[in-house]
Amino acid sequence: MLRLKSTLVMKHLITLLLILFVTSGYAQVVTPGTGQSFTFQDFATGYPSAVIPTSAGHYTLLQNITISAGDTLLLDANTQELLFFNSITLTVHGQVTCAPRPDTLRITCNSANQYEIRLDNAASSRFSDILFEYGSRILVMQSAATFERCEFRYFNNSCIQYSDASPVIEYCRFHQNRKAAISSAANMTGTPKIRHNTFYHNALDSVNQPQINLGPGFASDTIVIEDNVIDGCVSTSGGIAIADFLGIGNTHVIIRGNTVVNNRYGYTQQGVRINALIEDNIFRDNNLETNPMNGGSGVSIYGSDTTCRAKLRRNLITGNLWGLTAINKYGIDMGTAADHGNNCLFNNSNGGVEYNLYNNGTNSISAVGNFWGSNDSTYAETVIFPSTSNVSYLPVMEIYPDILSFSLWDDASNEDAEFFPVGNDTLRYWVGCMHPDWSNVVPTIVLPMWVTCSPDPSEPQNFMPNPVTYTLTTVDGRSKEWVISVIWGGAVEDHVSLPVTVTPNPATSGRIVLYNDSEDAVLVEVYTFTGQQVYAGRCTESRMVVNTSSWRSGLYLLKATQNGRSRAFKIVVNNF
Q1: Within a domain: 314
Q2: What is the side-by-side strand order in the sheet with 500-503?
Q3: What percentage of the chain exceeds 70 in pLDDT?
């Protein structure tokens, strides 16, 4: 049975809670802690003064509710909406579970934006498919919690605040909140896992907060911020911040695969004993702070000592006021001779000057194998400040709009197929057998890093009979067209039956003779195996002689086409 406690009972405990959490003065319902599971319909039935059903699946909460250790709050599929009245608080010492549901549960407030949900030394809880809106905050204190496929909007504080906890937050949306979307106190540790979320238009108050604002981490675990989109709005809203000013943690961080755009800054790391791996991110146009002295960095590493470390690999940092800024003391690895950075830093500028790296400290930076805005290594010297004397940046990464490799399909009958460049922008691809459907072939195109292709290589194309043109574009806007021509029969002789024979083979007398045993004309094309056409003609008689005396000795492809059907012959020419 549920029991009702007055807030006048256990005054010493209430006083402590008031100090920590500013607890409201409402009466509350406390579950018995006997291992039971409760729904809001159970509360509405047992305590109608605390929970009022307004319609089927819709409940208004008028009193604080505490789920005791051992008990479970079940958010079942029948619950459609929870309306908190003013500063009502839901405290969980047990756990929260969510039943699978076909729709979204809405948790909202009457208007005051003051309700709280507290997980305080709670068992592992899961919140799924919930819209949280008009709240104050969700506190996760020494508790395990997972938030998945949830939406958070219109909060007047940080949506999720954690303390000595490692919440998992995945596939959620945070937008239009007054403070940071996710935060922790500077003197509290935790290692959240933040993956596959979307953040936009958070930290709307002019408080100089990032959208993700985290303190130090547990030494035995890793903070993971991965595959998120973090889009800003106001000039005081940053992207991601990790800080340990007090030196209370031993923080390991992975920042991977995020797109951080249109913020005051992209990522900042400050303090001591922080070790971050920053890889495969996009930090673009984080320039809303127009005063370059107050922000605008794509990445900023600000260390109190050299234990503030960061390793950067394969990041795109562009369109910011500053690319990467290194301040005070730090240990920064942007690439070594054995492990190139492959970061792409360009067009980070303010005041008409491009600042792709600003080393505003005394420590050296290893930055080997990065692209600085040009394939010319001397250009790097103009965008690394104040000088390159303590930055190891050679060799630079060069980017060209080239195709590294090309194939049409994985087929054992074409295992000898290969492509050959013709000039700088044409490929001829020789295949030994006809594809069953030339109008629906998906090629495999391998491109250099930081080069895109249009049409997308994953799109099917018709490679017969016309060539396909691909436009390759480097990240800094240079482009080149590549024309892919497919020639059937280049790798091995096909077995199409045509009334055509070629002799002699090898050709040692400076000529080859093609015999046509039909009355229909034959189109004859001869190519080198580097793709150059050396002969084209029509055989309209029963016999045609092709002069090979001027050809270099080697292997050639003769393609005979008659009435839309083709046959290929490998011809060896020996003019020694």
Answers
A1: yes
A2: 500-503, 511-516, 543-547
A3: 87
